[in-house]
Amino acid sequence: MLLGPFEVRDGEGRRVEISGARLCALVARLALEPGRVVPFDVLTAAIWGERPPAGSANALQSLVSRTRRLVGHAAIESHPAGYRLAVEADDVDVSRFERLAGTGGLAALRQAEGLWRGPALADLAGLPFADNAAVRLDELRLSAAEDRLELELGAGNDVLAELGPLAAAHPLRERLQGLLMRALYAAGRQADALDAYERTRGTLSEELGVDPSAELAELHLSILRHDPQRQDRRRTRRTNLRAQVTSFVGREQELAQLAKALETGRLVTVVGPGGAGKTRLAAEVAERSADLAPDGVWLAELAPVTDPHDVANAVLTAIGGRDGARFEAGEGGAAERLEEVFAQQGALLVLDNCEHVVSAVAELVDRLLGACPDLRVLATSREPLAVAGESLHPIPPLEWPAGSTEDARGYSAVRLFAERAVAVRPGFTLDETTTRAVVEICRRLDGMPLAIELAAARTRALSVEQIAAKLDDRFRLLSSGSRTALPRHRTLQAVVDWSWDPLSGEERELAMVLAVFPGGATLEGLEAVSGLDPLDALTALVDKSLVELSGERYRMQETVRSYGMARLAESGQDRAVRDGHARHFLRLAEAADPGLRGAGQLQWLDRLRAEHDNVVAALRFAADAGDAELGVRLVGAVWWFWFLQGMRIESVHWMRGVLDLPGEVPEELRPVRLALQGLVHQQLGDPAAAQETVQEALDLGDRLGGPVGVLLLCAPMVLGDLVAAARAAERSMPGLTGWERAFARMTLSMAAESKGDVGGAFTLVDETRREMEALGERWGLSSALRVLAEHHDRAGDLAAGIEARSRALRLAGELGVMEDQAAILAKIALSYARSGEHDRARSYMDACWDCVERLRRREGVEYVRLSQVEVLLRSGDLEEARRELTAVEDPSCPPEVRAWAACYRAMAALLDGDRPGAGPSLDTAMELGDLPTLAAAAHVRAAALADDEPARAAYLLGAATALLGTEDRSGFGDLLRPAERARAALGDEAFAAAYGSGAALTRDAAISAVRPA
């Protein structure tokens, strides 16, 4: 969407996040010519202006690649001359606007204007193509508005409120001034119309030195003469629709869909929960569809009707009240009289709030549509009328930002809150602080317009932060609305009461059970927790808009769920129902845990993702009930799921929550509880206590015997305690099978490598790979492939390393583990950079940063940045590399990260020819680094010494081999060439002797030889 804040949506209407000004510029420029090839130079100029980067073709290709990952590869097609956005013209709001505006019909022009959400290409101001397009589109918008206003005037519609500000904003636009004069005269304001002409004449003379056009002068003369053709046509327009006193926000898509549905069908029903805005939407659609109903638009409000037999009388009264004489129900009754009235009329009948008399309404509508061929009916209800030919249109919530709040003003829910808040608190503005709170309010209120308006009304006395904080008690908070609104629209409580009260006993009971499911429920889950056969009652709740069906899940809006929980508490059944809910999800989590490490891993992941909010609700119940056993069992069962999803913060929160519960747990759960305590210590920054507690858990598990769970097996590795992990793997290996045995083997592989047994490590991890392949488990296989890739890199086989990592990347992508994908992409980029394929390296780094932007947390991003530094160094961009290094040299970064950063800074100095400048950085790297960093730093120091002290350089290269247990051919040898230069200075024999002397050192001796004294 370009007619307002830039926005992209997929085929199902879901928002696609396009972050970054250049990506937005690329998509926007392509969208201005949908389906047509846009040349490379045009796109380059659109994105970078007059200063394209060096290698702009590669830069453009990289942007296209990144965009394809967001919108789908097929959406942007490559052609020899440029790129093409492969969409239909009507898929782009600009093209659709131009098509609709060109048709000239009133309904089409209304739809065209409804596509606008603000200034065109608002987020791309400053780019020449965007500014030029915006000017053109603004002119087309104004022309379309003039066309539509002229048709409105011709139809007798009152447009003065709109024309006045528009004409004032464009005083030199004669057509607008003429329309204003016509509207004023049609409203009986001849003097004001003549004043408008004099004002326009004066402005034209002062600003342009010209007289009004002949057309405007002729209009002026006809008004002076009281031309009967200029008389008010509104007196002939038949309707009882009320003029609105507040703005209508959002719903552009729904307005267009409903208008189209009324054009093609005769019965349209807007369905949705209370407070969703059905009445206002129906009124707006009816007003904009008046040209479909030349004989009148009538609104019948059915909420006050209590007796179904009175429905026809209520409709008859509504359509007669505005014409000065009420229709009397003759011998045939009100329904027959309605047939007579509408038999020969092209009218639109709006039946509002039909849900409580839905059967009677359905009978009446079916009868009228059959007897009156030109009648159209627009109904609002919380459930369908179920009449033949009915077109159902569920009303969605208003939209709010799901993530970043930077562009929150473009979302309809936020706009509605802001507009209503300004009305009661004129100084209210959306700034960085208030926007976050407003978005939270809109989210918590499910985008429900009435609830948002009630919340906005509270800004007169409360800050938005206070309102957001009080939403747990929303029914008390949102308890004062318009005094003139219908009683059921004055408070949030009344809105939900209106839907709840007509429910049957079985429907209420099931609704209260469903309220306990914050993540929604499957039919199976509802059966298990309720003990009922819920299908009939559930169908009724869906029909009545209290429950939404999403895929195979049944959900309630948070407001309805809060109401249901309150009713459940009043019934005294809440403890029993919540306990049943928690036990059900404990069974599910314990069944899912082993499934997460087998061939059915993806299915179990999907199921736990779908049920995660319910699992959290079960944990919350365990905490509320003080049930330590339930809490520990639940956390132990979902810990591996949390680990796979990278949900570190949430897992620690709940681990601490259940560990704080009083009381003992069964003996077999004590090792699990201790292991969880150790992981909490680690997250709280106490590694010593963490290792001690996890070791206690392992020892207790050994004494108790029984199977070794995944938590005990993995906890030492999570802590980074390779010694304890290897010891635990060795002790438990005889009793392990399947995934646990393969994981233990990988742990032993890493331990072997740390001792210098590189060959044994490779053999063990390759066996792990084969076992994980046989199991069909993706995370373990991906991890094994990544370790194998490191072995290939050190052996100098970069192609094999890339192949292994590419396979690991596919597996991580299937799992949806964004953190692993980012790390693997960074390593692949690094391998391509070391291979000299710099364009491919940059492309993979771009993909890596796309993943990083979607990460929930920033922990570990510094390792990605280190890869970026080496890619930049190898491409010759030393200054950019140095700028990147500043972000990972902060004291808050882990020591090994700062060690690598120092190593790279020394390397940059050497590449610049500054050997003295490399020294301090190398000292830092060798002081802080682990074995791999020490080996890399030894290579860099050898490069610094290769020309002046070649024997020392060769000795350091050998010591680096002793550190790793193998020669590392993946380092900086190809870039800094220390071995080549030292060998040239010494000769082959002397080089081999010096190198061999270093390589023969023990690991401890090699560390001493490399590290400064």
Commentary on this structure:
By secondary structure, this protein is mainly alpha-helical. Helices cover 63% and strands 5% of the residues. A hairpin with a 2-residue loop joins strand 4 and strand 5. Helix 27 (601-625) packs antiparallel against helix 28. The two termini are 64 Å apart. Mean pLDDT is 84; it is low at 231-237 and 321-332.
What order do the helices and strands come in, and which of them pair?
Layout: E1 8-9, E2 15-16, H1 21-31, E3 37-39, H2 40-48, H3 56-71, E4 76-79, E5 82-85, H4 93-103, H5 106-114, H6 128-154, H7 160-169, H8 174-186, H9 190-208, H10 214-224, H11 252-264, E6 267-271, H12 278-288, E7 297-301, H13 311-320, H14 334-342, E8 348-352, H15 358-371, E9 376-381, E10 390-394, H16 412-424, H17 432-444, H18 449-457, H19 464-469, H20 474-477, H21 492-500, H22 505-514, H23 523-530, H24 535-543, E11 548-550, E12 553-555, H25 558-571, H26 574-595, H27 601-625, H28 628-645, H29 648-659, H30 670-683, H31 687-704, H32 710-719, H33 722-732, H34 738-754, H35 758-775, H36 778-794, H37 798-815, H38 818-834, H39 838-853, H40 861-874, H41 878-886, H42 895-911, H43 915-928, H44 931-945, H45 950-964, H46 973-976, H47 978-986, H48 988-999, H49 1003-1010
Parallel strand pairs: 6-9, 6-10, 7-8, 8-9
Antiparallel strand pairs: 1-2, 3-5, 4-5, 11-12
Helix pairs in contact: 1-2, 1-3, 3-39, 4-5, 4-6, 5-6, 6-8, 7-8, 8-9, 8-10, 9-10, 11-12, 13-14, 14-15, 16-17, 16-18, 22-24, 22-25, 23-26, 26-27, 26-28, 27-28, 28-29, 29-30, 30-31, 30-32, 31-32, 32-33, 32-34, 33-34, 34-35, 35-36, 36-37, 37-38, 38-39, 38-40, 39-40, 40-41, 40-42, 41-42, ...
